[in-house]
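so ive been stuck on this for like two days lol. basically i have the seq below and the ligand is pyridoxal-5'-phosphate, smiles is in there too. i just want the complex predicted, nothing fancy, no docking runs or whatever. if the output looks off dont worry ill sanity check it later, just need somthing to start from for the group meeting slides
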Amino acid sequence: MSATPQSLIREDLLALSAYHVPDASGMVKLDAMENPYPLPRELVAELGALLGSAPMNRYPEADARTLKAAIRGALDVPADCDILLGNGSDEIIQLLAMAVAKPGAVLASIEPTFVMFRMIATFTGLRYASCPLRADFSLDVDAVLRLLETERPAVMFLATPNNPTGNTFARADIERIAAAAPGLLVVDEAYYAFGDSSHLDLPARLPNVLVMRTFSKLGMAGLRLGFLVGAPAWLEQLDKLRLPYNVNVLTQVAATRLLGSYPALAAQASAIRADRSRLADSLRAVPGVEVFASDANFLLFRIPRAAAVFDALAARRVLVKNVSRAHPLLSDCLRVTVGTPGENARFIAALQEAVTDLG
Ligand SMILES: *Cc1c(COP(=O)(O)O)cnc(C)c1O
């Protein structure tokens, strides 16, 4: 008898459903925390020329030293820490998980949070353990400390600002968790550009802390580039698992040039931040809506009959993310990415119509 997927593929994998990316063609796309702005105009022609002359017949720079230098030029990476690059930070989560996947090892996080932590734990044969945030999405540090004590995770991921809740966790709480963690603590700062905190300095002071960032939320989602900062002794081991040339030549060339204009990217992030507070005000004015505080480029809000509202928005060609079934604490919650002022206005108008229609 010949092999079938059912006979050959791991049972835990057969049981999973695939990460669903909805078709957004023709829609106002506010579901994936993308930066809504095109490249700064003055860069378009220059990038075109740079990419045109990039040596696509050759493998990219194996250690990506030029790109890493550009990252150091743009951001305060501690001098005694190394940088590991990933094809998006998703790849870095996977590298970390593979690296610690001894039999019985645990990957931990809080809930609700970024779904890839749990998914990648499953992919790599780790057990996933978590503890809930409080109902207002604040961090219950004592609950985290108990989780560390009982589960002894090899690695814990803490996203701050957190996705999909949008709130930031306090520096002192992160340090307490790091001090108590029996394994690694990975601080995921995917949304650093939209808030006021940075923990990039932590790995230089706390030996079990690594900081992960991505450029996806900063206007480069299509390039797929994330990075991890940490002590060389950790990154050296992770680098053994990294597939050679995981960051392709076009990404290396484009990101290096874009990081040379980091102030232009940061200015877009500041504009998005200002629009976030206007969008929050407009949302709050919609009857029945509760808006949660956000330091990210999205807002989480609660609205009666969220699933029906989501469908009504989609019918009006506005795509947000329905997270209402992702976790009990998120009941009736939707997540909307901050778009351009025009997109935000279309979203608010569609939401008002939806609420009126649903009565
Ligand atoms: C978006 C996101 C990432 C992953 O981003 P990549 O596009 O894979 O770099 C990681 N962590 C959090 C919390 C995110 O929201």
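The mean pLDDT is 96. The first strand starts at residue 28 and ends at 29.
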